[in-house]
Amino acid sequence: MNLFLSLLAFISVVTATGPVPISKSGLAGINGFYFYDPYCAHGCFRSFSPYTLSCSDTISAGGHITGDEAAHNLALCRASSFPYLSSIAWCIHLYCPDDTRASKIETFWETEITGDAKVLPIWSFGEVMANITVPPTVVAMGQDLVLNSTMLTTEENWQTTWITLYYFFRETALESYYGLSICLTSFGLPLVLTWLGYLPFMTRGISRIRPYLYPSLIGTYHDRSLPFLLGNVPTVGQSGYIFILVALNVIFLSIGYKTLYPDQQMQWYTSRYQELMAYFMWRTGVLAFCNMPVLFLFSSRNNVLLWLTNWSHSTYILMHRWIARLFLLHVLLHSILALVLYQNTGAYTTSLTLNWWIWGCVATVAAVILVLASALILRQRAYELFLVTHVVMAVICVVGCWYHVWYGYENTFGYETWLYATIGGVVFRSRCAGGEDGEDGGGGGGIVRVDVPGVRYAGAPGHSVYVYFPTLNPLRPWENHPFSMVPTVMLTRPDAGRLEAAEGEGEGDVEKGSGSGDHDVGVLAKKATSGLTLFVRKSAGMTAALKAHERLLTLLEGPYPTNPTKEVLQTDRLVLIGGGIGITGLLPLMSPHVHTNIRLLLSLKKADECLLDELSAVLDGVCEKEVVVGQRLGDFGEVLREEAGRGWGRVGGGGLWTAGDV
């Protein structure tokens, strides 16, 4: 699915950006990205640009002339219209402060005066001023005016024009500062919290507060769902991160507003209510955009933070869902505020047919479907359908957002910068390892063994590989599931006549959230040291179609880090708790090269007893173990207290039914 997503994302990028000529981009007010500078000159330009010119009477967008061609023709007209150029030049001469640099005026003149940066005016600013022999006295007024001589604009009109532009830029710059703060906090906080753990003076303090951060916020509903499949509850530590993000979004949505009304008039709106509503509308749109890069990053299997922090993949997926809720909240507020504002100004009816409004509606609908269709009950009942819908709606949402800001602003105010970051994260979110033909062998109790020869993986603990079986269902070749990695030689007895290694994963797909559908990765190779063996419990979806095959096309993606193991492996004593096929996810930790002081507690259903034979080479190497078949293990808390009383380090693992107790 990740490969399919990357392909769709690439297509969407080409579709979205192909016809768009981008001259510059950035975040308003940051790193020199400013617009309407100098404001005095832009106030003059916008005071005269609405008027008809003598040469523009014949310009029309009708017939076979496109809107772009008409705009280009208008720019050519302005470039050669002395009344138009001289009126703006005289306005700049009158109203711009004396300390305004001449170079800034000339830059504005060459890039903005015609409305098209590619069309330069015939005369420079200095040349136009030199050719104004008589100061103008006629004031340009009235919508039907034809600008056929050098004219004046009123100081009131100029003042209203430039200060409107200034307040718009002020709000846009604040949106950039606030949005960047949210984005950097979302990305940087996991890094800071992880790196604090490496400071010598923080070690003892962190060790003391950890027991208070790991428990679920409500009961034991972190690793298992709330009743009626309402979802999973974050831990206390995760709740702190979520609280910080929610607080930042609420605070930055609520502060920093400043209006022209009632002291001055704003050119675009007729009341303080409309002006403030517009600021809220723009703010919610940008806050939605600034959450998108992190939203997509946290959902990625190749999330760079997985390599840089000690947070697990399941933690980032949980954060992904909470950020998605914040994103949807901003999107809905943005859409509702736009609807109310445009109805209040009377522009609603005419806006319905405009491209920027249509694409905004497309993005909003896609965002609603994305979040609502991601409910846990839908993910578990129809996971493959959810996954396809999720990917398609994500692409539609990104493309809709792109065209929304392009048609609305033509990428002049930096809103598209957030989308560049989002699209870049999607394109590079996965990496492909390759593929081989596998052999679907025996098993029991609904467990199928799949041998994939010729593949070499290090089998590092805490990593997983995603496996595709495209020929099982040719209509859905993108379906895949995660499996853990174990070196082939690990499951080989020293005296065996052939090398036979198996590897597994007890960690189900964190998106699917099903404990019974856990999978395993392993290796089988006759007289070889390479390969993987998958122990798969057949369930609904892709795995239900597994049956005996001599050759089964198997594609592998990864490996990716899923759970940090560095601190676990530094303990004096390692306690492993597993249930059913989940034991395969613990196999990499049982290698003598990984840890030498291990205690294993394993519970198997009667139907899964075949796993004992398949994994005997590894299990026999564990001196301290307790294996029960057909019943549950005892009190985990007592086991951990016993080990802690001896002064050992400890670690708990296993299926969803054990995680809450541990």
UniProtKB/TrEMBL annotation:
Membrane topology according to the record: Multi-pass membrane protein
One biological process term in Gene Ontology: iron ion transport
InterPro entries, sorted: Fe3_Rdtase_TM_dom, Ferric/Cupric_Reductase, FNR_nucleotide-bd
Subcellular location: Membrane
Leader peptide range in chain numbering: 1-16
Domain Ferric oxidoreductase: 284-401
CC per GO annotation: plasma membrane
Keywords of this entry: Ion transport, Membrane, Signal, Transmembrane, Transmembrane helix, Transport
GO molecular function, one term: ferric-chelate reductase activity
Keyword Transcription recorded: no
Top-level taxon of origin: Eukaryota
Residue stretches spanning the membrane: 177-201, 240-260, 280-298, 322-344, 356-378, 385-406
Matches recorded under Gene3D superfamilies: Nucleotide-binding domain of ferredoxin-NADP reductase (FNR) module
PANTHER family: FERRIC REDUCTASE TRANSMEMBRANE COMPONENT 3-RELATED (PTHR32361:SF9), FERRIC/CUPRIC REDUCTASE TRANSMEMBRANE COMPONENT (PTHR32361)
Protein name (record): Ferric reductase like transmembrane component-domain-containing protein
Organism: Favolaschia claudopus
